[in-house]
């Protein structure tokens, strides 16, 4: 039977994904302490539910940037989905569409913005941007996403360089170097024009050069805001001071995230970082969270601590590996179901009520 | 030899109960985190015992709704006891009677109110009500219990819909759908009259429709109070605010419970929830607790934190599975013995003194 | 080689002591949670050592009731030592003497006061009293100890009835019923005169009847004080209020103890109970501690939290099992050595300094 | 492949180092609780990283006693490195030199000051002093180090006597007694002149006599300061009061250390001790830390809590065992790389910024 919970999903996926690729997806940076607390920190929090509340008119929908979604979750950007399944983003975007869940496409996706857009024209899609040192490549990708009907730009700020990932070093596995994740680059005119030559090696070398961008700073954010009419969301905020700066910079939304524990080991879990950021943001812009969301109760806890919605990463990637589009749909069906039950049994008739649920340490 | 402690009871029972039924009994909702803390949270509390106290006149009796019981514990309502043993509630009620322990019969019991009553006419029995959407069925069952000499109505408020139980989904096991637990319905005239047809499928479908009752709210409680002269106890309270509302609604007793961790994962353990509720209730009505009671020291801790008595769930179900009525009696004999010793060795000569025992974190 | 640390001692001993007897010695009451925290609670405390302190004149001696001992530890009373080794108390008292460590003999020892005294005439011995319901038996034993040159009476107050010991119930093992531990009774005239008949069964039955003494209270303590000129020490105090009452009753010393976790599960560890009691006692009478002492660092921690000395239980019993008198001596040699090094490396040149060592949680 | 992280390093090293020697290197004092918390206490701390910070001009260099080093770490003094590899200190000092990392040579090294100095003349070397009861031997060694171009004296104060090391007792392993670690003594005229006879036994006996120095105190420190023009660093401080005395004594630097958990079990981890000491020192003199540093994130945490640099112990010893000089270099290459990435991904462009990184418990 199709696995129900995360640990079963993960172990089933480990049997169908080749070893090094599985290691890339599963693992975290360094000693995987942050990966570990991403889930265990949820367990430290307990919900104090309310009853006799009449939740028969349960409504789990959220509104984000003017659009309504039936569920309070999105799909996190995950690069190079071909590592998990041939159909990669095409399968995921269709599964997401079937549940009216927004899909965030990665810069380093296996299919290009245009291909993904074509596969699921009507559905809600956001584009995740990894900055390019050649800024014009960044703006070009953003423009392509805008033209393809994407509805938001997600700027990931925690990956200015690759984390220290021992599993990948051990497996000598570097997907970008093996040619994964280049679809958006080789379909980008600005990128292609910037190349001395268009052979595979030059392309890969140029991607590597562009994607290592330690200089990224708030000036780039300001310029990005000018270059697009789409809402700009920053992904990877963990410090309340950065949340403050983001709002000052006119950012439209924040994703509290530690990149699923993949970038820097020893950093705070996103659920632990959330309350201080929520206090800073204070409802002024949408606040999302990912890294470690595995169950309906995690959704309740994140909402209760101030998130407006959450994002799923590895769970849907494992669903993809196990069954392509259908696999992702099954994961989403289960997650949707558990989330609804969890909200109702916490006494929350809707998302606004969920944000008032009592937690205790 | 008959197993002494819970983990031995559980593992012995796992060998005599069929797999899916055992999974149903043992398991908790979601990731079973609440099931887990139900017991581990007791371990975080330590008793600071008193000595040289003269406990030779030890008295472990309690008074509830005008009746005195020799032990400070009751039997929690557990549905479909035929899953554990053919004799089901009939065995349990007789075992309870032999120890003068009140038995709370579930709405979804394997034998009807009338059958249970007949099996043990003189003993103390309470009736646990799962609300029916067709309110008249609820009132009808309550009236039947009252007529059969039951002494209290326990309204369970945490099961407005079924929790997310992965073990059961994995085993494709739904006891209600398999026809377990219908005795009280098929013996209820109001229920039967409400049916389009009385074949098995219609009965089961009607039970499922009635038992999913997310609309339950305080208005129903008020009406229930009017419909019965028995004390009404609410089972499943975890939030002090709900305790306050219960008292305002004229409720006669509260059972702090998370349904043995079976309904909603990620919620607070009942022992952690207890102190704040005890503070709110402040002795105005009886305060009971279940979920995770396994030993005499747990009883002392619950009393010290404000409970007037506790309830046992799975321990007696496993006793039932292992030896029918006799098995339940053995579990009760051991539990009674350990409870008495624990109270004496904590320095408490009676239950009133137990409520003053010092705990330390 | 002879085992160095507790876990090696315990596992070696488990191979030479018969199963039920080993279970009796090793186990704790109930779920053994208190047994477990007796050692793990020490690990929660960390010493913050001082250096450059000149500890070349290290002095680990203590003074108790006018007598000086070279080491800050004693041997706890342990009943029925024949369960561990034929030579029982005779071996232990001689080993203790060779290290100038006071030996506390149990009421239910395998050899009588007079036999033990004869085996090691000059050394420091205390007598531990289990109260007898027939008070004259209690006073008679106390008088015998006094006459035999014992130097203190230790009244154990936490064993008014036997704890709930599952290991022994499982093994159907009750050493008193099997005739162990009667030496002090069958050599006591008052006891013998109280018997209807002197056959084995009557003796054992009378011991069981006398040793179950839930009525013990402060009045008995006051009377005991009158009946002996020896210092009276109460063993088993865990609540600061009881420490206060002990001092008011004129008691000469206190042993903070939970009986090695054998009497009541779920109660506080003695090291956690110590600071509040030390605050109450405030140096007015000697304050000792047992239950969980396993290493030199435990001694430093207990002293730093206010104890004047500590007692060893199971460690020496396992030494006895492994090598009789010589086995106990080896345990003491190692413990002495580790204690000295630990005091020096904490920066404490003597016991007074040890009581000022900084701890941090 | 060459192992990446500490646990792989340790298990690989266990296969190439003889059992007793490996036990000597790996183990901690007593029950190894301090050894354990040395690493787990780092995991209790979480970094709250900053982003969008422009870290392209990353600079991980530090300045110590007027000299600049490219990395914020040094190599801890480890005695008798021949236990790990024939080339011992000669390999390590050259590996350290190749990375411009200062090497601290132990008093009980396998090669003498002069040999080590000759092997790597230009590189930065410090000399770690174990006090000799014959003070002139201490001063003589210090002078030899000064003449050989060593740049600081590190006085270790936590080893006035050997800790209680069960692994070594079990293995009957005492490297000093087996003749390891005497190079600095047998090349020291003052030491040789102090001997009655120069045979092996006399040498070893004299080393043992001199190295047991419980009388060490602040007077010796004051005298030492007078006898050398080099900066004097005290290694082993854990109590803020000792840090205060060190500064009053004119000490030039402090290493917060518990000797890798090898000396006294049950004492505080160095990372837990750090903040109070940093508060006391308040930047007046360099503050270093070792014991438990395993990863780049540990470096960030130590700097954030007030250290100016950290030291590595066992990690490089295992590298030495696995590959001599090259093995040490590989360990340093990896550690350097992980440290750089960790600083950048915490948002710290240099060490000064690292000291302002936010941590959360
Ligand atoms: C295999 C993999 C690839 C990822 N690629 C990207 C990416 O390209 N861009 C990005 O912003 N985040 C990326 N992430 C991080 C996810 O967006 C998300 O933050 C994370 O997976 C959430 O944590 P979870 O996996 O615990 O749910 C990736 C995560 C994984 C597991
Ligand atoms: C198999 C099973 C069935 C149960 N059925 C009911 C029920 O019908 N009604 C109800 O109020 N509670 C029901 N409960 C919950 C118990 O009343 C009680 O709250 C719980 O078992 C107490 O926790 P414990 O099992 O840890 O002692 C059930 C519990 C179990 C284990
Ligand atoms: C086998 C055994 C028998 C004991 N018998 C007695 C006894 O007769 N009287 C008494 O006061 N304490 C008795 N104790 C408790 C010890 O005096 C002491 O409190 C305890 O062993 C200390 O804990 P430790 O074993 O963890 O060191 C006994 C303990 C053991 C293990
Ligand atoms: C095998 C071994 C030998 C050591 N010898 C010395 C020594 O001679 N002098 C000294 O000051 N510290 C000595 N130390 C302690 C180290 O300098 C350092 O404090 C410790 O190893 C740091 O902890 P870590 O191993 O967890 O990194 C030794 C440590 C080890 C593992």
**Most residues in contact: chain pair:** A-B, 35 and 38 residues
Instruction: Characterize the overall form of chain A.
Output: globular
Report the C-alpha radius of gyration of chain A, rounded. 19 Å
What is the helix fraction of residues of chain A, given as a range? 40-55%
Q: Kindly state the mean pLDDT of chain A as a whole number? A: 98
Strand composition percent of chain A? 5-15%
Regions with little confidence, pLDDT below 50 for 5+ residues of chain A: none
Give a written overview of the molecule:
Four copies of one chain form a homotetramer. With 361 residues, chain A is α/β, with parallel strands linked by helices. In chain A, 45% of the residues lie in helices and 12% in strands. Chain A contains 16 helices and twelve strands. Chain A has helices at residues 6-16, 19-26, 33-43, 88-98, 113-119, 135-147, 166-170, 183-186, 189-193, 200-211, 218-227, 240-248, 270-281, 296-304, 314-345, 351-354, and strands spanning 46-48, 62-64, 67-69, 73-75, 103-105, 125-129, 153-156, 232-237, 253-256, 287-289, 309-312, 358-360. In chain A, strands 4-11-10-9-8-7-6-5 form an eight-stranded parallel sheet. In chain A, strands 1-12 form a two-stranded antiparallel sheet. A two-stranded antiparallel sheet of chain A has the order 2-3. In chain A, strand 2 (62-64) and strand 3 form a beta hairpin. The longest helix of chain A is centred in the last third of the chain and has 32 residues, at 314-345. Chain A is globular. Chains in contact: A-B, A-D, B-C, C-D. The A-B interface holds A 1, 4-5, 42-43, 45-56, 58, 294-298, 300-301, 337-338, 341-342, 344-347, 358, 360 and B 30-31, 33-34, 37, 157-158, 160-164, 166, 169-170, 214-218, 220-221, 236-239, 241-242, 245, 263-269, 272-273. The site of one flavin mononucleotide has 22 residues of chain D, from loops.
């Amino acid at each position: 039977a199709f696995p129900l919970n995360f640990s079963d999903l993960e172990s089933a996926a480990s049997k169908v994904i080749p070893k090094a690729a599985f290691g890339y997806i599963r693992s975290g940076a360094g000693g995987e302490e942050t990966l570990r607390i991403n889930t265990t920190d949820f367990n430290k929090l307990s919900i104090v539910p309310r009853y006799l509340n009449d939740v028969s008119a349960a409504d789990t929908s959220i509104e984000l940037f003017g659009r309504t979604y039936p569920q309070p979750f999105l799909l996190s950007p995950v690069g190079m989905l071909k590592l998990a399944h041939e159909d990669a983003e095409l399968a995921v975007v269709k599964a997401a569409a079937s549940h009216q869940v927004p899909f965030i496409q990665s810069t380093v996706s296996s299919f290009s913005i245009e291909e993904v857009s074509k596969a699921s024209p009507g559905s809600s899609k956001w584009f995740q941007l990894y900055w390019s040192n050649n800024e014009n490549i960044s703006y070009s990708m953003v423009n392509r996403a805008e033209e393809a009907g994407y509805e938001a730009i997600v700027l990931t700020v925690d990956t200015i360089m690759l984390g220290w990932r021992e599993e990948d070093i051990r497996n000598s596995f570097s997907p970008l170097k093996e040619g994964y994740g280049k679809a958006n680059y080789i379909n980008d005119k600005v990128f292609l024009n910037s190349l001395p030559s268009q052979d595979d090696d030059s392309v890969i070398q140029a991607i590597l050069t562009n994607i290592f961008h330690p200089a990224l700073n708030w000036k780039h954010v300001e310029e990005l805001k000018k270059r697009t009419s789409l809402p700009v969301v920053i992904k990877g905020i963990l410090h309340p001071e950065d949340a403050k700066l983001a709002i000052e910079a006119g950012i439209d939304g924040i994703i509290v995230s530690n990149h699923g524990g993949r970038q820097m080991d020893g950093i705070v879990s996103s659920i632990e970082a959330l309350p201080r950021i929520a206090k800073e943001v204070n409802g002024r812009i949408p606040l999302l969270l990912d890294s470690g969301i595995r169950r309906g109760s995690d959704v309740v806890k994140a909402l209760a601590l101030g998130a407006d919605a959450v994002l799923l990463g590895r769970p849907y990637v494992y669903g993809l590996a196990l069954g392509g589009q259908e696999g992702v749909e099954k994961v989403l069906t289960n997650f949707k179901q558990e989330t609804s039950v969890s909200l109702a049994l916490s006494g929350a008739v809707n998302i606004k009520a969920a944000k008032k649920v009592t937690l205790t340490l």
